[in-house]
């Protein structure tokens, strides 16, 4: 996971083009785990996830 949400969105955007669907996998560690709540909110508001508890359960 990058150190900022802005960088994460940039990287995911570069990996996806022309509306193709896919799955993004993010690994968090002690240094960047504080970003998770903001990431969940962004994903929820964009409609990318419906159940954020499934995210943290993995």
Give me a quick take on this structure.
The protein has 58 residues and is mainly α.
Question: Can you tag this structure with a few keywords?
Answer:
single chain; 58 residues; mainly alpha; 3 helices; 47% helix; 0% strand; globular
Structural commentary:
The mean pLDDT is 78. The longest helix is centred in the N-terminal third of the chain and has 11 residues, at 5-15. The two termini are 15 Å apart. The radius of gyration is 11 Å and the shape is globular. The protein has helices spanning 5-15, 36-46, 52-56. It is 47% helix and 0% strand. The chain contains 3 helices and no strands.
Described by strand count, sense and barrel closure, the largest sheet is: none
Q: In total, how many domains does the architecture comprise?
A: 1
In round numbers, the mean pLDDT is: 78
Rg result: 11 Å
Q: How many helices? A: 3
Low-confidence stretches: none
Number of extended strands? 0
The percentage helix is: 40-55%
H/E series? HHH
* N/C terminus separation: 15 Å
Structural class call reads: mainly alpha
Shape: globular
Task: Name the quaternary structure.
Answer: single chain
Strand content: under 5%
């Amino acid at each position: 996971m990058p150190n900022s949400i802005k960088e994460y969105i940039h990287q995911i955007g570069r990996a996806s083009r022309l509306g193709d669907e896919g799955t993004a996998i993010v690994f968090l560690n002690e240094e960047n785990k504080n970003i998770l709540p903001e990431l969940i909110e962004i994903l929820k508001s964009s409609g990318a996830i419906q159940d954020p508890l499934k995210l943290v359960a993995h």
